[in-house]
Design brief:
β2 and β3 form a beta hairpin. This protein has a 3-stranded antiparallel sheet with strand order 1-3-2. Helices cover 55% and strands 19% of the residues. The chain has a single domain, classed as 50s Ribosomal Protein L17, Chain: A (Alpha-Beta Complex). It is of the alpha+beta class.
């Protein structure tokens, strides 16, 4: 896992917020490194949401904000019931971010 110049607590919170934004908006423009890390983090949660059990819902509620967990469990999870993996797509965008010249990428649900 990439560290993003953060200790464990802030890094965990950072991924939680990024996942919340992606779930609510369904696509986000960010840096390539963040998109790749977010993809691995969120695909595991989508796999949990596909199980459609009470334990899976409680796991999502423990790892995400309530509204994001509910949307993932009730709308996004059932949509990918037949798909075993590859629920997210990372598309590299031409150009760089102005302030630090980081490469940009679009991450979205397939």
């Amino acid at each position: 896992m990439r560290k993003f110049h953060r200790t464990k607590g802030p890094r965990k919170s950072f991924m939680k917020v990024m996942a919340h934004n992606l779930i609510m908006k369904e696509k986000v423009v960010t840096t390539e490194a963040r998109a790749k890390e977010l993809k691995s983090f969120l695909e595991k949660l989508v796999s949990v949401a596909r199980k459609n059990t009470l334990a899976a819902h409680r796991t999502l509620l423990a790892r995400l904000p309530k509204d994001a967990a509910n949307k993932l469990f009730y709308t996004i999870g059932p949509k990918y019931k037949e798909r075993s993996s590859g629920q997210l797509r990372v598309i590299k965008i031409f150009g760089v971010r102005k302030r630090d010249a980081a490469k940009k990428a679009l991450i979205e649900f397939v």
